[in-house]
Amino acid sequence: MTEATTARTGPVCSAEEQAQTDARLGRSYRPGREPSQPLPGAEPHPGFGYRREEHGNMLIERDVAIPTRRGTVYADVFRPRNATQVPVIVGYAPFGKHPHLDIETLWAGSGIPFETLSDFVPWEQFDPVPWTEWGYAIAIVDGVGNWYSEGDATYFTPEEAWAGHDIVEWLAQCDWSTGKVGWGGVSYFAMTAWSVAATKPPHLAAILPWDAASDCYREAFLHAGIPSFPFIHGWMQLTGTGQQRVEDMEAGMRDHPTFDEYWQCRVADWQAVDVPTYAVTEFPNNLHLRGTVEAWKGISSPDKFLEIRGDKEWEGFYQPESVQRQREFFDRYLKNVDNGVSEWPRVRIGVRTREDQWTFRDETDWPLPDVTYETLWLDADAGTLNTQRPEIAAAVSYASTDDSGAATFDIRFDERVEMTGNAKLRLWISTDLSNDADLFVGVEKLDQHGKRVPFTFSQMYDDGPMGFGWLRASHRALDEERSTPERPWHSHARRDWLVHGKPVPVDIEIWPNSVLFEPGESLRVIVKGTPVQRYSGRFEIVFAPLHNSGNHTIHTGGEFDSHLYLPVIKR
Amino acid sequence: MINFWLASRPKPGADRDMFDFEWGVIHVALMLTTPSVMAGFTKYSQHRAVDDVPDSCFPYGRHEKGWYSIANHVMPDVHALEAIFGGEDYPRRMQPHSFGDKEFVIELTSVVSDQSFGPGMKPGHGVKVVNFVAPAEGIDRDTFERVGRGEYSARIAELAGEGEDLRRYVQNTQLPLDAAMFKGTLFEAGGVQTYSGIEELWFPDREAARRFRERRESDQKCRELESSIIDAGRSFSMTVVERVVWDYTDPDALPRPAVETPGSVEAGTLATERNWGQWNTEISAQDGVLA
After folding, report:
1. What angle do CA B264, B268, B271 make, to 5 degrees?
2. Please, which residues 175-214 of chain B have a Cβ atom closer than 8 Å to chain A?
3. Does residue A549 sit at the B interface (CB-CB below 8 Å)?
4. pLDDT at B291 over 50
5. Number of domains in chain B
């Protein structure tokens, strides 16, 4: 591999600059976990140092040094042996590029077709064996400051994006490279695609973000203001290995409970992204769905495609038909193959009916251009949703710290109804003990017999609600410029504490959805102070600490315009 | 109603009698003549740790910092606190009077339950054990609250019986509080929201407190419930005497503070006060209005 030099644009990201930025934003660090120490339940690191391996027609270069403005990072590069002109796809993440996780055991139940994968597949990444056969190089990079890569590790930051910029440009100039570089993968590998593309590396030709949250405050660390400390604690175990310091995101959540510059800097300038983009997510995904859709809407790429599926995150990524589409996309934009991808429908959604039952449908845009909205009024007295606003005020209370405490509101459909799009739930809520309220909302389907219909949920579960939303009531202030009638956008800039017994209106964003209801089936809205359903395992997003005490009371009818704003498709 | 708690102590090496005077007389006088304070706090109580109380009187250890004082401020909602610390008269009138240590325990709570037993207790009489309780490792807030206000509280009531020893039991649960609210105040170095709850137990005397502690310790069910939600090692107790400085939580119980009454001597005196550093500056005759 030849050394290549890059003419750098953008910030210098020197250590001095970094220190100033850290101080200004209030970032905290902790010592990195020593790379030679294996993570619990993982294989030890195989040893650091450049080496070459050959497997059939695949050449692997381990620990290739890539200079960046943040220090040298190390990559494993898989490419066709003896090939001289290949495009390269970059995967960048903090989890460790070396194979150290027993994927089949740890991810049992995820729906991944393990039998289709080679032994070389890095977790959440493209399988290098078929991709090198198809004439691609795959470069898997340990993030800045992680494992043996130099520097202090920061997560989702602009500095990380500029290091990614340098990685793209360096790989483009390798003597075996065509100079066309793609970026992608799942989750972290995908989230960085937004920020790196926003730096406009000249040789970045396409991105394929598969489940790419794009606003980590609102979608990953503090869902609508509710922190998930236990979840992030586990995430820090996976991401906190390095020789120097790693950013302490638990401290960050504690020190920055509202959306300030600490978090704002981690949201890429979506408008600046202009490369061809194939963005994929799933309606059941309670981590990446919102961010993938919002960023896709915001980017300015002329060639951009959105796919919202009905299955689980990793299950979908590794399905053979998905891999085929991934290849077609990169063939088109990294190899300039005229394969019809440019004419793909701009949007493809999975219309769901129950559990894991869903079918793809092509669309021209998201939100669907012909979506209409229906207002369904809550009636606390009857526990119903109604097309007519109740004249009489009513209230229903539930114990906010009890799993069994909930308020439900149902509507039975007499005709076929398709709910596709963003929904909003407006509630008037009061408390009797706390000066805040953490609200968990589930949208469920009941069959003709009133029995709950389970849906695929999150990354691993088969028994979830079909729709979901959250809100910490003290964060109810809206960003009026960004809010729309169907999609409230909370500024999270300040906290408006509740006063005991005084109802206040809150608008709760229900993440995007697409579900068909047959005549006789019902839609149910559930409001709780605890998660709509509890799960087990490392992939559950556990929210804590909560701000609930005593009872929540929901007020409807009369002066209280509590309602569900439902997206309906009539065709 | 919610409660704003401050536990503190005299400055290291300072004379405690002087602290008592500063806190008990000067500080109170300032509060009584500061409109935002009187508008916001409907009840104000001071507690002072009793000397020579044996450890056997309280369930948890003393705090390593040796807290001496607890102030409890009752207010209708947290906005009262925001109005006080964010207002104009607090920094001008209260802030300069710095008489205690810079370290504090700061908590905001709501009363979960308030139970009286037997003859009850008159304010200011007997002794009171105040427990600042930390949650057991791995216990989430939901469980802490559910067990604490449910089975645990019920068990304490059972042990209280007819009120031979325990006369009143109040359980307070922690509320969220924004530490940034105290930036620039005397309390900015305080530890905000360390404890999940505060228990208040009133006894006729310290001997009754000791007996009740023994009963609590020897009751297996109580011990099991307690250890399931409370980390005794990170919790602390104080045995205190209580002084209810004012209480107009019942609006009819007392007249409003004089400083809130236009035309009163106190309101007039306040009107002639000057801002910090401006006491001897001249007021232009054009700006002045003859009475």
Report:
1. 145
2. 175-176, 178
3. yes
4. no
5. 1
